[in-house]
Every structure is written in C-alpha cells, then in structure tokens.
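Progress report, Aim 2. The chain analyzed during this reporting quarter is listed below.
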Amino acid sequence: MHSVAPRNPVKILCDFRHEALEGSVPALLTTNGTVLCSHGGRVTLIPRQTQVQATSGQVLCEPDLVGAPIVGCPVAPSPGSKPCTTVVSTLPGSTSLKVVVGGRPAYTASVSGLTDGVPPGSIMVVDPGAPTIQV
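Predicted structure tokens for the chain:
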C-alpha cells in the first residue's frame, strides 16, 4: 500500500502498479462524478469499497458499474423500445492501468459501457468527480 500526496490537493491511498510511479494518473471516476446513459438517464454510482477516496468521493473500481441502476432515462416504452434501467457491461479500456484498489482496477473518465435499453444504450462520463493526479 502506497500513500501518495500528489502535487494538487487530492490525496489517494491505494496500490499503484510499478509503472505508475512517474507521470500522472488519469482522472478517476468517483462517487462525486456524473455518468449518463446516451439518452440522459443518470447512472447511480455505488462503490463496493469505501476506503479509497479522491476529492472526497469513493473511487469506483471494476465491476462497480455493472448492475448499477439508471434513473430518468426518457425513452418511452413501446413494442420496439425500452428505457435504460441498468448498466449491463463496461468495455475494455474503461479502467486504469496504473491504479488498483483492493486488487481491482479503478475506473477512469474514459469508462464506456452498455445499458439494458432497447435498443441498447451506451454510458458516458460527464464529470469523473476527481481530477488527473500528478505523482
């Protein structure tokens, strides 16, 4: 476990992989962030860990988003459509290669995934909730 005091006011306590010792860590997705479905419904961010924070929000890790509820998707139910209600998967490239929390890679601002909407919707980060961190 490494304790890192970055050059900005963010403080993170977690396991860093060896390549993370220089440069910057991408913006991490935290419970302070905002993730929406492609129609504007809000993904409820529920972390499975509460020990590691960045900018006062818990860091979200793989697979925290899978199964996350989506509230307020405006797609009207019809024979050919269904509003997004749940995140069903995240896609490769959604996690940090540098930050691991409790053995699980942390999600970054580039997280992408699919919903259970019909047709399937995607998810996108509007605000990750934590800035890029210089280490």
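Residues 1-13, 15-21 have pLDDT under 50 and may be disordered. The radius of gyration is 16 Å. These observations will guide the mutagenesis work planned for the next reporting period.
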